[in-house]
Amino acid sequence: MIGLSVAMALGATCVISALAADPKPDAVVKTKSIAARVFLDDKIKADAALAADCLAEGRKWLDKNAAEAAAARKEDPQFFKDGGWDFERKYAIRSVVADRYVNLLRNDYMDTHGAHPNSDVNTILWDKTERKRISIRPFFTETADGGPTMKAMVKAVIVSLKAEKKKRDTSETATDEWFKSVEPSLLKIGAVTLAPSTEAGKSSGLTFHYPPYAVGPYAEGEYVAFVPWDALKPYLTAEGTRIFGGARPKGDAEEPQ
What we know:
DUF3298, 3-stranded antiparallel beta sheet, Heat Shock Protein 90, 2 domains, 9 strands, signal, Actin, Chain A, domain 4, PdaC/RsiV-like_sf, DUF3298 domain-containing protein
């Protein structure tokens, strides 16, 4: 009997601990049409300006999807008989380079009662010194659409994607048709981050993040293409030369980003 009481107490403690471990959303919308949440990781929340920027964007995303869900429910209420849509957005820091450039991943989950839920991934590059979002343009001498830098990036991205597809045994989709969306333009090549490095404070190159459907069928999931910094060495500015160096850590290549 004592043993049973102890076991019950331990079980209750485990349940309480599990509940306590669940992160609390930083912004929420819950209506008959939708339940949606935004999460910021603790490292983001430690930077007030970055947290405010992400949260403002996240709240706009919540409001936009809540309005769309309400309109959809009004037009086709039968599609909501089993409940509303379910949306979630998570912001997480991927790397910090030169104690200045903060790279974030923004992962979205969307369930609108279709054939399957969908997901999306995007990236944010935050300049701690300027306290604003920037692009990777300052690291390269030119980034014109169709220019030499962007063409070199696309070539390296496709090499990486083909290697990844070979590892997954999905080489049959390593075709021009699936890669046609990877264009030599900063706005069309894919969501990019500065990859971490074996050398402290440096970046080993660029990682490009693709959600399901972007460069392969839904069943293949997300892809991450890695472009080592030395492949782009001829196109680096002085600041690019300063921040790039080292190699990609083994764990970064093996773990989902």
